[in-house]
Amino acid sequence: MLLTRAESHGELAGLDASNIERLQVLEQSRGVVADSLVFKAWKRLLPYLPTRVKHLVVRMGACLRRRQKRPHGRSLLRESGADLLFCPFGATVYAVPGVPAVSTIHDLQYKSYPQFFAAEEVAHRDYAFVTACREATRLVAISEYTRRSAIHHGKLGEHRIRTIPHRLARRLGDAASGDPSLLLRLGLGGTRYLVYPANFWKHKNHELLLTAFGVAASGALPADVRLVCTGAAGDRCDFLMNAARTMGLQERILFPGYLSTAELAALMRGSLGMVFPSLYEGFGLPVLEAMDAGVPVACSNATSLPEVAAGAAILFDPGSVREIADAILLLATDATVAEDLVRAGRLRAAGYSDTRQMANDYLVCFGEAMSLGRTASQLVGVYADNWVGNELELDVVAPGENVQLRMELVVPDWIPHKSVDVELRVRSGMSHARHIRLRRGESRLWSVPVSDGLLDVCLKPSFVPALCGHGEDPRELTLKLKHCSVRRDDGDGDLLWGESQG
Length: 502
Hints:
The longest helix has 18 residues, at 51-68. Helix 9 crosses helix 14 (321-333) and helix 12 (285-292) crosses helix 15. By secondary structure, the chain is α/β, with parallel strands linked by helices. The chain has helices at 6-9, 37-45, 51-68, 72-80, 109-112, 119-135, 144-154, 180-185, 206-217, 235-246, 261-269, 285-292, 305-309, 321-333, 335-350, 355-372; strands spanning 2-5, 22-26, 85-87, 101-105, 138-141, 161-163, 192-197, 225-230, 253-257, 273-276, 297-300, 314-316, 378-382, 387-396, 403-410, 419-426, 434-439, 443-450, 453-460, 479-487, 493-498. Among the domains are: 180-350, 3-Layer(aba) Sandwich (Rossmann fold), CATH 3.40.50.2000; 376-502, Jelly Rolls. The strands form four sheets. Strands 13, 14, 15, 16, 17, 18, 19, 20 and 21 form a nine-stranded antiparallel beta sheet that branches. A six-stranded parallel beta sheet has the order 9-8-7-10-11-12, with helices on both faces.
């Protein structure tokens, strides 16, 4: 069962098979209400509205958000009796207590270069990572570098995360000669050139590459050698084109825009080599693709790239203009070095060609996750800043008697409602539901006797802070959870959220 969101549902049609059911369970992306014209109009009017009308707006906003959601993913897992949840893109959006989950971590670039992201994006990525570390039974990293980063930043035990590298799809084919018609169209007919195939994201380090190419061009780089930077047009591309023009290199540095896979393959096959000065990669698949195609490579010595290249590429410091320039000169002028790199690169790429091994590694990981069973209580539904939406889900592993679920709940004094109702609903393990009501500004430690099983904590009414004049937060919230634990009489148990209490 493949659970998708609207943005990617169509793209994944190629995975349809007799044993795969593709289900779209999220209609729109996060923040859709906050980005709507209606939402923004209400925010501008809010300070001038009477209190009763403000409260009505809050309820309308919460209602609208519920209508736009399709929270079917979690219920589908429960109703279908799923054996495992696999999250190939990291975020454990559909995780439910009682169903083991495996999450793949691709990179933690926001930790190393937060300046390359908007504050909201950093918060979103961090929430996804922290939540995956908490909710996933097992985690997978796409490189050993990414694994070590995840262990460090997520404070993970070594046993919880394994490395399963990407494998090659061989989309570029073998290097021979470039497509003459494409090369003529790009203004490359009869010339030699190096390629940098990358989007124009800041971590791709185009600025230093252009500077280094200028240094090489003013030195021993032959006059007919050009640099081709592929990637979709946009503000960053325009900025870099202007930079090349300012440097007087507009005839030698080309920006052909987005290229299809076939066009990129032809461009790569006709090149002298690939230069890859990225500051950060979680894996670095373009390096292996070039090697597999028989294209010599010079790449950054940062993050995962030395691990992937492993002696089959010229390595340089991506922060050193001189080292990048030297690598450009070596690729463009030393045929012996280029031949050695092609030979070593093909051998290195061959080690990443076994896609069946990758599938088997994942199957082993899935088996480990499912074999662990229910070893500790689990909580799902809390944001990293302690806020809770409409529901918490718990899998209480509580053998024996006299087991207590303890929750410290806090209702801020600025919420628009007078009180919040909290109800503990039972899916198994208890004979009846429990209910409390917390007033605005109240904090309470709620202790409830529980037995082994699945529980839901339902909370209402909810509100959207941005609709109440409290910042830009578009989430639907109710109260804060400062602490949650399952404890026995002897003091042992599971800490599910917050800090340990005496």
